[in-house]
Write a structure and sequence with these properties.
Elements: H1 8-23, H2 33-52, H3 58-70, H4 76-94, H5 100-149, H6 152-161, E1 165-170, E2 175-178, H7 180-186, H8 190-193, H9 209-218, E3 224-232, E4 238-249, E5 255-264, H10 266-280, H11 290-301, E6 308-317, H12 319-326, H13 328-345, E7 351-357, E8 360-367, H14 370-384, E9 389-391, E10 394-396, E11 399-408, H15 414-430, E12 435-438, H16 441-462, E13 466-475, E14 481-492, E15 496-498, H17 500-510, H18 513-534, E16 542-547, H19 549-552, H20 557-568, E17 575-580, H21 581-584, H22 589-601, E18 604-610, E19 627-630, H23 645-660, E20 664-667, H24 673-682, E21 686-687, H25 698-710
Helix pairs in contact: 1-2, 1-4, 2-3, 2-5, 3-5, 4-5, 5-6, 5-10, 12-13, 13-14, 16-17, 18-20
Length: about 700
C-alpha cells in the first residue's frame, strides 16, 4: 500500500489525478490522460484556494466551470462526474482545520458556481457556433443558388457534404430533397420523406411566430428567418433544432424554393434544462430553492388586480440540538422527511413549498381567497409535523414556528414580504414555538426599529450621540439636595431623544453595555467632581450610577471604577452604584465579590427597584448594599388622601427592616407633596421624582443645590 500524500501540494495532485480519471473518458481531447491531468492541476488549485478563502467568491467556481468548456469537457457527463468528484474529494484532500460542516457548505456553493460557469461558457460557445452556422447558411444559400444555375455537380457536393441537415422544398411546401445529415438526425429514410409537406412537421411547443414567419417567407415578404423548433421523430422522441429557412430566387429574382438548414441541439437543450434544475432546486430535499422561490414570489406579487398571496415562513424548533446530538447526517434525513411532508401539504394550484436553507422552509399560495387558504395551509403544515419522525431507531418529535404574511399583490416587494414573515416567525418562536402567528405591521415596525438601533449603537458611542441627564436626590428630613442619579439618553439622528428603556436592553444583548456603562460612569464622576468644586458650601453631592448585570459580571469593573475615581480626583464615598434587585437574586459569592470590594473601598451600593424581584428578605444580610431604593409601585397609593393603608403598612415594614439592618431607604417616583410628607413620616431617608425635579442638565442640579445652601 502507498502512503497518503504528506504536503498540501501532494494532496492537491492526488485530487487532480482522481478528477482526471473520472472525466477523461467522456472528454473530447487529443491529450493523453497524464497531459489532461496536468491541465486540471491549476483548476484544482483554484478550487482548493476558494475552499479555504476567508470570504466565498463564486467567481472562482464559475471560472473553473468555464475552463472545463475550454478544455473540451462539453459532454454533460463530464460536468456530472466533475461535481461528484468535487463533492466527494475536495474537502478531503484540500480542506484545512476549519469546521467540516463549513467546508462542506463552501464545497456545495463552489459546485453550484461551477455548474453556473459551465452553463454560461457552454451558452457562449453555442452562440458562437450558431453565428458560424448562420454564416454557413448564407454561404450555403449562395452556393446552392449558384449550383442550381451553374453546376449540378458543385451543388451536390455542397448539399451532401454539409455537416448540418439541409432540406429543399417548393413554395407549396412539398419536400423535394434532403441530405444525409438531415436523414440521420430524424432517423428516417429518403423514401419516407418524399411526398411530405413542410406544414406536416408541426409540434405542440412551436412558438406562435414560427408559422407566421414561414408564410411570410413563401409569399416572398422576407428572405430568411431563424427559430428554435422541435420535431417528432418516428419513434416518438423529440428532436430540438436551430432552424434557419431561406428563400431561393430564380435568375429573374422570383421566389422559387425554400432552403432549410437544421442543427441538432437536443443534447445541449437537455443539459441546459438539467443545469437549470440544479440551479433552482435544493440538492438535499429536491424542493425549489431560494432562487426559484423568489422568482415565483416576485411573479405572484406582480399579478393583476384582485390577486392576493399568502406566505408561511417555517423554522424548525430545536433543530440545532438534533444536529449536535445525533449528527448532521441524521439532521439531513430529518430535513428530507420534513420536506416530503411539507410537499404533501401544498398540492393545490397556486401553491408551492421551497427550502430557503438550513431548517427554514416557505410555503406560498396565490389566488383571490388567500386569507382563508394561507390559514388552512399553515394548519396542514402544523398537523403534518405532529407525527414523530423515525431516525436511526429514534422517534423524533418535530416542532415548528410559522410566520404568516398575507395581502394583495402589487403593494410590496419580495424582500419586504420575506422580512415581515421572518420577523413574525421569530415572534412565534419567542412565544414558545410550535405555533403560527400572523404578521402585524406595528410589530414589524418595532422589530425593524430595534434592529436599526442595534446596528447603530456602536457608531453612536463613537460619534458622541449619548448624553446624561441628572435627577436630584432630596433628603426628606430637611429638603436638601444630597446628589443625583445619572440617566443616560441617546440623541438619535432620526428618532430624536431616546430613553434608556429603548436602547439599554439592546446594549446588554450586544455587549455594548460595558463600554457604554464605563462612559456613563466616567462622565458622571467627572460631573460630581465639578459640583464639589463649584459649591463647597452645600456639602458633598453624591452621584448615583446604574450598573447593569453585564457590567456586574465584567472582570474589569473594580479596576475601571478605581481608575475613573482617581483620574477625576473624587472620593469613593461620593459614588453610589445602583444594582437592580433582579440582578442579585440568587447571586453567588463570585458575583458579589466585586460589589464587596467596591463597598470596602467606600462606594455605596444601592439595591434598585426593591420589592419587584420577589427576593428573600433574609438575603439582605449577605448583600453588600447600604441603600434600598423602594420601587415606585409601593408609593403610588400615597399620591391621594387618604393614603392606601395597605401601602402604608408595607412601606413602614420595609423601612423598619432596612433601618434595623443599617440600610438607608430611597424612594422613587415621588410626584406630590402629600406623598413626600407621608414618606417622611414613615422614616424614608431620601427621595426623587417629578415633585422635586425632572431629569435635566447638570446646571439645574447646581442651581437647586445653591438654593438649598442659601435657604
Amino acid at each position: 500500500m502507498t502512503a497518503e500524500p504528506d504536503g498540501p501540494e501532494d494532496r492537491l495532485r492526488r485530487f487532480a489525478t482522481i478528477w482526471s480519471r473520472a472525466v477523461f473518458p467522456v472528454t473530447s481531447t487529443s491529450l493523453t490522460r497524464p497531459e489532461f491531468e496536468l491541465r486540471l492541476v491549476p483548476l484544482a488549485r483554484r478550487l482548493s484556494e476558494a475552499l479555504r478563502a476567508r470570504t466565498f467568491d463564486a467567481a472562482e467556481g464559475q471560472a473553473v466551470g468555464a475552463a472545463l468548456i475550454t478544455a473540451h469537457c462539453t459532454d454533460p457527463e463530464a460536468l456530472s462526474r466533475t461535481l461528484d468528484c468535487v463533492d466527494a474529494y475536495l474537502v478531503l484532500y484540500c480542506g484545512d482545520d476549519s469546521p467540516q460542516e463549513a467546508l462542506r457548505t463552501r464545497s456545495a456553493r463552489l459546485q453550484h458556481a461551477m455548474a453556473a460557469g459551465f452553463a454560461h461558457a457552454l451558452r457562449e460557445r453555442t452562440l458562437a457556433e450558431q453565428e458560424a452556422i448562420s454564416r454557413a447558411a448564407l454561404n450555403a444559400r449562395s452556393a446552392v443558388a449558384e449550383a442550381l444555375h451553374a453546376s449540378e455537380a458543385r451543388f451536390r457536393a455542397v448539399f451532401e457534404g454539409a455537416a448540418i441537415g439541409i432540406g429543399i422544398a417548393d413554395l407549396d411546401g412539398n419536400i423535394l430533397q434532403v441530405n444525409g445529415a438531415l436523414l440521420r438526425m430524424f432517423g428516417i429514410s429518403e423514401q419516407s420523406v418524399r411526398g411530405r409537406k413542410v406544414v406536416e412537421w408541426t409540434h405542440p411547443d412551436d412558438a406562435p411566430q414560427v408559422w407566421r414567419l414561414y408564410e411570410e417567407l413563401v409569399r416572398g415578404e422576407r428572405e430568411h428567418y431563424h427559430v428554435e423548433k422541435a420535431f417528432y421523430r418516428p419513434d416518438g422522441t423529440v428532436l430540438w433544432t436551430n432552424l434557419t429557412v431561406s428563400l431561393l430566387r430564380d435568375p429573374d429574382g422570383r421566389p422559387q424554393y425554400q432552403l432549410a438548414l437544421m442543427e441538432d441541439t437536443t443534447e445541449r437543450r437537455l443539459l441546459n434544462l438539467r443545469l437549470r434544475y440544479e440551479a433552482t432546486h435544493d440538492a438535499l430535499t429536491g424542493l425549489p430553492n431560494r432562487t426559484l422561490f423568489f422568482e415565483r414570489l416576485e411573479k405572484a406579487l406582480s399579478a393583476g388586480e384582485g390577486q392576493r398571496f399568502g406566505l408561511c415562513y417555517l423554522d424548525l424548533d430545536g433543530f440545532k440540538t438534533i444536529n449536535d446530538s445525533l449528527g448532521h447526517a441524521a439532521g439531513d434525513r430529518l430535513l428530507v422527511e420534513v420536506a416530503d411532508r411539507l410537499q404533501s401539504c401544498a398540492t393545490a394550484p397556486g401553491e408551492m413549498v421551497a427550502r430557503l436553507g438550513g431548517d427554514e422552509f416557505v410555503a406560498l399560495t396565490t389566488g383571490t381567497d388567500t386569507e382563508r387558504e394561507v390559514d388552512e395551509l399553515a394548519g396542514r403544515i402544523m398537523n403534518a409535523l405532529v407525527t414523530p419522525i423515525s431516525i436511526d431507531g429514534r422517534e423524533l418529535t418535530v416542532r415548528g414556528s410559522i410566520g404568516i404574511v398575507e395581502g394583495p399583490a402589487g403593494e410590496r416587494g419580495p424582500a419586504e414580504v420575506l422580512r415581515s414573515a421572518d420577523i413574525t416567525m421569530y415572534r412565534a418562536k419567542s412565544a414558545g414555538g410550535n405555533r403560527f402567528e400572523l404578521a402585524d405591521p406595528e410589530a414589524d415596525a418595532r422589530a425593524i426599529t430595534r434592529h436599526g438601533l442595534t446596528t447603530a449603537l456602536p457608531a453612536a458611542l463613537d460619534r458622541g450621540e449619548f448624553f446624561i441627564e441628572y435627577q436630584p436626590l432630596v433628603h426628606l428630613g430637611d429638603g436638601s439636595v444630597r446628589g443625583a442619579e445619572a440617566l443616560v439618553r441617546w440623541l438619535h439622528p432620526q428618532h430624536g431623544v431616546l430613553g434608556p428603556d429603548r436602547f439599554i436592553p439592546l446594549a446588554e444583548h450586544t455587549g455594548l453595555i460595558v463600554p457604554l456603562g464605563r462612559w456613563v460612569l466616567e462622565q458622571s464622576v467627572r460631573q460630581a467632581r465639578e459640583w464639589q468644586e463649584r459649591h463647597t458650601d452645600a456639602g458633598p453631592l453624591r452621584i448615583n450610577v446604574n450598573l447593569s448585570p453585564c457590567q456586574l459580571s465584567h472582570p474589569g469593573l473594580v479596576q475601571d471604577t478605581v481608575d475613573i475615581l482617581e483620574r477625576a480626583g473624587l472620593g469613593a464615598e461620593a459614588l453610589c452604584l445602583e444594582v437592580t434587585e433582579s440582578a442579585l437574586i440568587g447571586a453567588d459569592d463570585d458575583l458579589l465579590k466585586p460589589l464587596r470590594r467596591l463597598a470596602e473601598m467606600g462606594v455605596d451600593i444601592a439595591l434598585d427597584d426593591f420589592g419587584t424581584g420577589y427576593s428573600n428578605l433574609a438575603n439582605l444580610r449577605r448583600l453588600p448594599v447600604s441603600i434600598l431604593k423602594l420601587d415606585r409601585s409601593f408609593t403610588q397609593g400615597m399620591q391621594q388622601f387618604p393614603a392606601d393603608p395597605v401601602d402604608l403598612k408595607i412601606v413602614e415594614g420595609i423601612v423598619s427592616l432596612a433601618h434595623s439592618l443599617d440600610l438607608a431607604v430611597t424612594v422613587e417616583g415621588v410626584e406630590t407633596g402629600a406623598q413626600a410628607e407621608q414618606l417622611r413620616i414613615l422614616g424614608c431617608d431620601t427621595a426623587q421624582g417629578w415633585y422635586y425635579a425632572r431629569p435635566g442638565p447638570p446646571e439645574r442640579l447646581h442651581e437647586l443645590a445653591l438654593v438649598d445652601a442659601t435657604a
